[in-house]
Design brief:
Distance between the termini: 24 Å
Largest sheet: 9 strands, antiparallel
Helix content: 10-25%
Radius of gyration: 14 Å
Number of strands: 9
Number of domains: 1
Number of helices: 3
Order of helices and strands: EEEEHEEEEEHH
Structural class: alpha+beta
Strand content: 35-45%
Shape: globular
Amino acid sequence: MYTLTHEGENVGNSKLERGDPSIRAVSGVFNNMGGSKSLANWIKSIGGEEDEGVVFIDLNKDFSLLDEAGNVVEFSGGNLISIPDADEIYLDVTGITDEVYKTYFSEHISAMGN
């Protein structure tokens, strides 16, 4: 389980169960305490955008991704996406180095080989 923080505060977590090693990206269902509507309001309050009912924000330097031990998982981009009408939330993380991808997401690499 990976934890997303914003300015040091816990936003929620994801297993980041899907990945594409060819572009060093991972994604997954995102879980947070308040649900998709609450998260959508929070995203908009910190500068996120809304497009046809989908609320999202680009992950910038204020966001950090932590592994289960609290270590920072380096990345350079991504999005937090909330779809309140469908009660769905997703986290997409991109710009992961080869080394970090191999360390944390080796199961995605193995799945590509099968």
